[in-house]
Amino acid sequence: MNLNRRTFFKVAGAAGAVALAPARTASASSDEAGVNAERRGVLVDTTKCIGCRACEAACAETNNLPGPAMLDNPAVFNTPRTTDTRTYTVVNRAATSGTAAPARFIKRQCMHCVEPACASACLVRALDKTPTGPVVYHKDRCLGCRYCMVACPFGVPKYEYDSPLPYVQKCHFCADRQAKGEAPACASVCPSGALTFGKRDALLETARERIYARDAKYVRHIYGEHEVGGTSWIYLTDVPFEKLGLPTEVGTYAYSSLTQASLAAVPFVLTLWPPLLMGIYSFSKRRNEVNATGTGAKGGHHE
Amino acid sequence: MNSPAAPAIQSRSWVSDKLFLGMSVWDYLRSLATPGNFVAGLIMAIGIPLIAYRFIYGLGAATNLDQTNPWGIWIGFDMLSGVALAAGGYTLATSVYIFGLKEYHPVVRPAVLTGFLGYLFAVLGLVADLGRPWNLPVPLFFSWGGPSVMFEIAWCVVLYLSVLGMEFLPPVFEWLGWPRARMWAVRMTIGLTVFGVMLSTLHQSSLGGLFLMAPTKLHPLWYSPFIPAYFFISSIAAGLSMVIVESGLSHRAFQHRLDHTVDIDKLMLGLARGASIVLFCYFFIKVQGVADMGRWSLLTTPYGMWFLVETVGFVLLPSMVFAFGARNGMVSLVRWTAAWTVLGIVINRLNVSVIAMNWQAADRYVPSWMEVMVSITLVTIGVSTFRWIVNRMPVLKELPEYHES
Question: What is the count of structural domains for chain B?
Fold first, then answer.
């Protein structure tokens, strides 16, 4: 058998070069206890929200965005709105009209998932999960592939399609304010106590206390405790979550787990394909040599 | 069509010989005045300014993409379909150099060239689609998003495009008349082929793996944990079919460049047999996906009907017709079936990325005329480049001085 040694090393070298690529560990899933305890969140108690939209105004102000339109006009709630490139948060009214349920409002923004789909989708870590909670955007790295938009189950990342130099835009949980020890702008102005900023673990306790308090009418579910593996923003309500417009079919697993099996195959392809293919190559070469009656073909000619 | 090299040319310079097919500049330019070139020129005259328009005014001005539908036909057609249809390069190279099926050697070079140009123009389509394409070096050198499927694809596509380019060096060096360089290029063949298979396995499947992240957005008949396997296996069928289609077209277009000693029809029937088996395996695991996920009841919905059109009409049926055609030596039927299969792969990629994507959303995406025109332009430039190369380099026919048994 005449498996050309040099050829083999060339192949092995190529395989090794790729195998040296960075280890594929989900960077976002650093779940050590210390990190967990410091993780911040916001508890949104929709039973306390009065729909004043002060949070929208504060968000616009701190981010130098145009102020919310129709600020004192209740007609703004007639059609549900979505966030966009110039609006990181919106307050919508729950679709409970015609029922006996009281008017309920829901603030929407980036959920700042514990293991964000967007960050595990991003090929340049432009979207990055910080240990204390915020999912931040390093705009200088962004390629504009928009895979984050495909991956996000909440439809949060918005794209500046109108610009020839576009960026992704979304709520960044006032990461800069948090670094200075301040609460996010929205939570710091909420007059009704609907938004509580704090450590996520403590907020979950608070949420449970409220649900199980005497005479409480809450739906016995904390939205965001387990959804998509957990979110920094968690919600309480006394009307069905569907009426609030929160997607309820998103599952309770981290989306980064969806591609783990696929990515785990990479080292196997890199290490098993070369010997397998070279083995087949040497067999077929031998076969062709035998078939070429009498002419012991010389090695090294592959064309 | 470029006419064959005119005989008896005086003062053949290198430029005239290599670039103008042995004609003088004037004669060469006159030879370009054909209806085919006119149509191609017209398409480019419209399409290239549109690409400029997209970069000056942004994606929003040129495309119908929106916040719900961030990916359109530049991803679904140019990238996903383009890369699948370019799979002939690794499929044929593996068959010939690794499996030792030497009788297919005459179709390796056109397959590698088709693959190289397919990837090149898929990447160009991607550049048009990316918001900030000048940041393309970032994932390669500056910021590594290890857990991202897209990161794997970026690396694999860049490396594989280089591999295909290097695999195509022997005919380039033969054309330039550099035998020593050619010898070195030929020696890389096995290494490049194995590396190419590794890279293709990874990124062909990972292009499907991208959509694993969208369980709530992609229709459940198309969403499956097997989607990387679907993309990989169907890319083999796509590659084989594309080689058959390309060979059929080359047979008509480049009569004078063909090697008439090769029984190309026999090779086509062999490829058809392979494509038939691969398509049947693909159909089988598609059915298994429906069964495993318990999706039978969805088949009677409108999307289910469309799913059946794709999997039965464009996978199972061509598989059977390929087998019938190969068994009965019906080359023309095989060629049409290959085109049918190619269309089916394009439909599949568009289903996954566009048609069955965001199927419950209020905002549905329909491409703008500019998006369609840019896609047509990229294909036209790709075909024109293919013709330019085939008319000059030994692609369809080996030069006798380099022929090895």
Answer: 1
Percent of chain B with pLDDT over 90: 79
Tens of pLDDT, residue by residue over B345-355, are 999 999 999 99
CATH number for B29:
1.20.1630.10
Q: B146–A23: do the CB atoms touch at under 8 Å?
A: yes
Task: Give the best residue of B132, B134, B202, B218 to mutate against chain A (max A CB count within 10 A).
Answer: B132
The predicted-structure confidence for A190-199, as pLDDT tens digits, reads as follows 999 999 999 9
ipTM: 0.91
Could you list the residue range(s) of the whole structural domain that residue B31 is in? Answer: 14-396
**pLDDT band for position B340 (50/70/90)?**
very high
- Write the CA distances from B243 to A97, A177, A179, A190, A204, integer angstroms: 61, 59, 58, 64, 59
Q: Is residue B168 part of a domain?
A: yes
What is the percent of chain B where pLDDT is above 70? 96
Q: Nearest-CA distance from B387 to chain A in Å? A: 23
CATH architecture assigned to A31-253: 2-Layer Sandwich (3.30)
Q: Do A166 and B189 touch (CB under 8 A)?
A: no
Inspect the interface and report whether the beta carbons of B59 and A301 lie closer than 8 Å: no
pLDDT (tens digit, 9 = 90+) per residue, A158-188?
Answer: 999 999 999 999 999 999 999 999 999 999 9
Whether residue B404 lies inside any domain: the answer is: no
With CB atoms and an 8 Å threshold, state whether A143 touches B215. Answer: no
